[in-house]
Description:
3 helices
Amino acid sequence: MSTVEVMAEATVDASAEQVFEVLTDWERHAEWMPFTRAQGGHEVGASLEGWTGVGPLGFLDTMVITEWRPGRRVAVRHTGRLVQGDAWFEMGPIPGGGSSIIWAERLDLPLGPLGKAGWVVAGPLFRRFMKIGLHRLARLVAG
């Protein structure tokens, strides 16, 4: 199985605590992440479910929260059939005000060599959606 890592970051005109609050309000996920909605818990060991797609075309991404540090970091383990691996969001204050947010994913690609070849196309697209999502989150939190 091939493992890939992808990361995106943004700055936000709001505190790390405010970012964390909106980020982990899973029902609001669709407000900032394109084509994705989510629901789930708010503590280590809690389950999360994300649906990515358009209408009935898409996939379910099941996760378990592995780290929960309010105002600083939330991490999950992807446990689905299609998406497996780890992801985390980390935020912190920046000098002069506001905060930074980093979104990182370490994914185990499915389908062996075919999955690795597909990542050549899907990887840049996935990274672009991550960046779009973080910028939309920044605008949403800064209000």
